[in-house]
Amino acid sequence: MSLILNIDTSTDTASACITKNGECVLIVKNENQKEHASFIHAAIKSMLQQTDLELTSMDAFAVTSGPGSYTGLRVGMATAKGFCYALSKPLITIGTLEAMAVAAIIDTSKKEEFLYCPMIDARRMEVFAAVYNHELNQLLPPAGMILEAETFNSFTKNGNILFFGTGSSKYKQIEKSPNAFFSNITFSAQHVGLLADKAFKAKKFAEISYSQPEYLKEFFTTART
Fold first, then answer.
1. Residue range 73-109, pLDDT digits in tens
2. One domain for residues 26 and 65
3. What is the mean pLDDT of the segment spanning 4-29?
4. Domain coverage including residue 91
5. What is the CA radius of gyration of the chain?
6. What was the pLDDT predicted at 34?
């Protein structure tokens, strides 16, 4: 059995979720990005009170490692690492784009008919993005890129691809392929919990001392294949 406290403060909406064997026990969200730092500890305290659980009851702590908001990533990572240090519990780090892809795959009825491209807005025509198949295999690793009309041609020419996330609306303006689809799918710490449960069972723990947010500062003009 795994009881995990999952934290996501990487994007506009912050959330914290307690999962038991990957199933959500309770989740709390906050949509004001400027309040992430003050929200997260109060949210965790509230969840523990509502569930009659203690921090010491957690088997591990999971957090989104990025990419995403610089400040948000630091808040989440510092919170999770602090708990792990204080309680001698393992740390699990989950890529933000991978968690987003999980949310999209779950939300899609004919999963195998699509590739999945989560996008996080990074100002102007820049985004952080990656591409996964319906089994969550990575076809394009997370990277910062400058969006152009032909950026994902190598994928759209071979089949359907679903774009989603805060950066996808910008790409929708220039991507005209009939194989390109767009959605308003959102993700939360609940999706982080699904991945964290698998990582816990496989004992894929992060090194607490050396774990840092993955900012992905570089931007490329086209997607790498």
1. 999 999 999 999 999 999 999 999 999 999 999 999 9
2. yes
3. 97
4. 3-95+187-215
5. 17
6. 80
**What does the alpha-carbon distance between residue 28 and residue 89 come to, in Å, rounded to a whole number?**
22
Q: Residues 6 or more apart from 33 whose CB is under 8 A from it?
A: 11, 12, 13, 14, 69, 72
User: Where residue 76 sits, what CATH number does that domain have?
Assistant: 3.30.420.40
User: Quick check: is 28 in a domain?
Assistant: yes
Instruction: Encode the chain in three state secondary structure.
Output: CCEEEEEECCCCCEEEEEEECCEEEEEEEECCHHHHHHHHHHHHHHHHHHHCCCHHHCCEEEEEEECCCHHHHHHHHHHHHHHHHHHCCCEEEEEHHHHHHHHHHHHCCCHHHEEEEEEEECCCCEEEEEEECCCCCEEEEEEEEECCCCCCHHHHCCCEEEEECCCHHHHHCCCCCCCEEEECCCCCHHHHHHHHHHHHHCCCCECCCCCCCCCCCCEECCCCC
CA atoms of 101 and 116, how far apart (whole Å): 6
Tens-place pLDDT, residues 139-158? 999 999 999 999 999 999 99
Q: How far apart are CA 129 and CA 37, in angstroms?
A: 25
What pLDDT score does 225 carry?
47
Whether 13 and 91 map to the same domain: the answer is: yes
